[in-house]
Amino acid sequence: MYQALIQNGLDRKSLLVALGGGVVGDLTGFGAATYLRGIDFIQVPTTLLAQVDSSVGGKTGVDFQQYKNMVGAFHQPRLVYMNLSTLSSLPAEQFACGMGEILKTGLICDGDFFRYVCCEQKGIKKLDMEQIARMVRRCCEIKAGVVERDPKEQGERALLNLGHTVGHAVEKLKNFTLLHGQCVGVGLVAAAYLSMQRGLLTKEEYQEICQGCSDYDLPVHVDGLIPEEVLSATKKDKKMEQGHIRFILMDGIGKSFIDKTVTDEEMLSCIQEITL
Description:
globular; about 280 residues; three-stranded parallel β-sheet; alpha/beta; 9 strands
């Protein structure tokens, strides 16, 4: 990428356009952040996941030796343009991945939105554009609000990592044969189980979360993994802070919070719940 930028004579007034999904957006954004110490770029996300999550907020990064987003920069796009008609050609599996991030967004701070998405699955899965637009807009409003208050993840923005600690570990150990949104779904179930074990979620709320993921064709279990290895992989997550994982728990649906007291035993119990 850098070679192409240099050979084509891009200068500090040049503009990069990220047309594609989250990987394209992250790569373009990271290139823009680091080429000539930073040039402008715009996001034109074409997948549901990119539209509701990765294109908003200015996080750019690339994976390094199977570790998620280990190399990156905060670099805000000049513009994010979404044309929802691109979703009509999106494979069902990729659409489901976007729904993983959407369910996550509702679980963080808007229980009514989470339940709306769960109740309206028939229209959403049929790409009712009015419902899709409402859903995408609400996700962007929530994420933009969090990012404005905490642009560089010093506090509140870490809430957006709900489901990602276990999800990233699963993604790595499955050698990326599961897509990111699918792993987020599994991670949401793990976080919900741990929250239930602590008495923060009722059994009914836990089942509601599992059902929401299943209804949108997201896995709630994974096979072929050893729980202890998943636990070990979580220790290499970039969200570690002085040896402690900043784990996101749920105090009811739509009320998430950051917790640094989760023990290895608790982690192992929720990992065992999602591994077959």
